[in-house]
Amino acid sequence: MKHLLTAALGRDEAIALLDSAEDMHEVQSHQLKKLPALRGRTVVNAFFENSTRTRSSFEIAGKWLSADVINVSGSSSSVSKGESLRDTVLTLAAMGVDGIVIRHGDSGAAALTADWLAASHPQVRVLNAGDGAHEHPTQALLDAFALRRRIHGTASRGKGLDGVRIAIVGDIAHSRVARSNALLLPALGAEVTLVAPPTLLPTGVETWNTQVTTDLDAAIAQQPDAVMMLRVQLERQQGAFVPSVGDYILGWSLTDARHRALPESTVLMHPGPLNRGLEISSKAAEAMQSAVLEQVTSGVSVRMAALYALVAGEDQA
C-alpha cells in the first residue's frame, strides 16, 4: 500500500489492516505507550479543516509509534497568505517528511496531493483524513474495527463482518463517513442500508452496494445489528434540505422511543461530534449499546496501523 486515499479496499487488505490495529490496540493497555516502529520518521498532520478526534488521534498514533509529528493548520500556514495547497504540500515534502496526513474541505484534495508528490517526492506517503464530502477512509476502518470487536470480541482476528446488518442514518448526501463505510463495510461482508430524507440522499446512490430507504422506523423494525447515526452537516448544506429541525427529529432521529424499539444487542454508533437531541438522544448515546467512545479509542489503533503500513513499509526507503 503506497497511500491511503479511499476506503475502497479489498477484503483481505482491509482485514489485514484491522488485524494490525488489534496489535496496536494492545499498546493502549501498556503503562509505557510507545513502539519504536517509526523512530526517525517524520509525519505532518496538515489539517485545513477543524477537527478534534481525527487530528488528535493521528497525533497520538504517530507519537506512540515514535514518529516525529508536526501539526500544520490552515490558519497557521502560508495558505492563509494566499499560498496554493500544491505549493504548501511540495514545501512540506521538500523538508524531508515521510508522511502527510491531510484533511481538506475540497473533495479530491488527498488524491491531488498524492499526484503532486508522485514525480518529485515519491517516497512521501499520503493519508486521507477527510476530503470534503468525498471520503474518510480511516473513519470507516475504525468503525469496522469497533463493530468487529463488539460482534466477535477477542476472537476478531482474521474475521470480517459477514452477514452483519448495519443501518447508516442521516445526512448521507454530505457525509464522507457514509461514502467510505458504503465502500468498506460491504467488502467485509456486511449488509448496509442507508436511511435518509429524500433530499439528503446523493445522486446516484442507487448504484452503491447498499440498500436505500427513507423510512427509519421500517429500518429499525428489521432489527439491525448496528445503527450508525450521522451528524447533520449544516456547514456543507446550502438551502433547506428538510422543512424544519422538528421534522428531521420526527422522521430520522434516534429518539428514546426508537431506541427502545431496537434489540438490546444492537450496537449504536456515531462518528461524532454529536448533536444531542437532533440525530440521537442523550439516553441512546450513553446506553450500554453505545460504541461511540469505543469508536474514538479504536481511532488511535486504526491510525497507528495505517501509519505503520504506509510509513514503515518495505518500499518506503
TrEMBL record:
<comment type="similarity">
    <text>Belongs to the aspartate/ornithine carbamoyltransferase superfamily. ATCase family.</text>
</comment>
<keyword id="KW-0665">Pyrimidine biosynthesis</keyword>
<comment type="function">
    <text>Catalyzes the condensation of carbamoyl phosphate and aspartate to form carbamoyl aspartate and inorganic phosphate, the committed step in the de novo pyrimidine nucleotide biosynthesis pathway.</text>
</comment>
<feature type="binding site">
    <location>
        <position position="81"/>
    </location>
    <ligand>
        <name>L-aspartate</name>
    </ligand>
</feature>
<keyword id="KW-0808">Transferase</keyword>
<feature type="binding site">
    <location>
        <position position="273"/>
    </location>
    <ligand>
        <name>carbamoyl phosphate</name>
    </ligand>
</feature>
<feature type="binding site">
    <location>
        <position position="139"/>
    </location>
    <ligand>
        <name>carbamoyl phosphate</name>
    </ligand>
</feature>
<dbReference type="InterPro" id="IPR002082">
    <property type="entry name" value="Asp_carbamoyltransf"/>
</dbReference>
<comment type="subunit">
    <text>Heterododecamer (2C3:3R2) of six catalytic PyrB chains organized as two trimers (C3), and six regulatory PyrI chains organized as three dimers (R2).</text>
</comment>
<feature type="binding site">
    <location>
        <position position="176"/>
    </location>
    <ligand>
        <name>L-aspartate</name>
    </ligand>
</feature>
<dbReference type="InterPro" id="IPR036901">
    <property type="entry name" value="Asp/Orn_carbamoylTrfase_sf"/>
</dbReference>
<feature type="binding site">
    <location>
        <position position="272"/>
    </location>
    <ligand>
        <name>carbamoyl phosphate</name>
    </ligand>
</feature>
<dbReference type="InterPro" id="IPR006131">
    <property type="entry name" value="Asp_carbamoyltransf_Asp/Orn-bd"/>
</dbReference>
<comment type="pathway">
    <text>Pyrimidine metabolism; UMP biosynthesis via de novo pathway; (S)-dihydroorotate from bicarbonate: step 2/3.</text>
</comment>
<protein>
    <recommendedName>
        <fullName>Aspartate carbamoyltransferase</fullName>
        <ecNumber>2.1.3.2</ecNumber>
    </recommendedName>
</protein>
<dbReference type="Pfam" id="PF02729">
    <property type="entry name" value="OTCace_N"/>
</dbReference>
<dbReference type="InterPro" id="IPR006130">
    <property type="entry name" value="Asp/Orn_carbamoylTrfase"/>
</dbReference>
<dbReference type="Pfam" id="PF00185">
    <property type="entry name" value="OTCace"/>
</dbReference>
<feature type="domain" description="Aspartate/ornithine carbamoyltransferase Asp/Orn-binding">
    <location>
        <begin position="162"/>
        <end position="309"/>
    </location>
</feature>
<feature type="binding site">
    <location>
        <position position="103"/>
    </location>
    <ligand>
        <name>carbamoyl phosphate</name>
    </ligand>
</feature>
<feature type="binding site">
    <location>
        <position position="231"/>
    </location>
    <ligand>
        <name>L-aspartate</name>
    </ligand>
</feature>
<dbReference type="GO" id="GO:0044205">
    <property type="term" value="P:'de novo' UMP biosynthetic process"/>
</dbReference>
<feature type="binding site">
    <location>
        <position position="136"/>
    </location>
    <ligand>
        <name>carbamoyl phosphate</name>
    </ligand>
</feature>
<dbReference type="GO" id="GO:0006207">
    <property type="term" value="P:'de novo' pyrimidine nucleobase biosynthetic process"/>
</dbReference>
<dbReference type="GO" id="GO:0006520">
    <property type="term" value="P:amino acid metabolic process"/>
</dbReference>
<feature type="domain" description="Aspartate/ornithine carbamoyltransferase carbamoyl-P binding">
    <location>
        <begin position="4"/>
        <end position="148"/>
    </location>
</feature>
<feature type="binding site">
    <location>
        <position position="53"/>
    </location>
    <ligand>
        <name>carbamoyl phosphate</name>
    </ligand>
</feature>
<feature type="binding site">
    <location>
        <position position="54"/>
    </location>
    <ligand>
        <name>carbamoyl phosphate</name>
    </ligand>
</feature>
<dbReference type="InterPro" id="IPR006132">
    <property type="entry name" value="Asp/Orn_carbamoyltranf_P-bd"/>
</dbReference>
<dbReference type="GO" id="GO:0016597">
    <property type="term" value="F:amino acid binding"/>
</dbReference>
<dbReference type="GO" id="GO:0005829">
    <property type="term" value="C:cytosol"/>
</dbReference>
<dbReference type="GO" id="GO:0004070">
    <property type="term" value="F:aspartate carbamoyltransferase activity"/>
</dbReference>
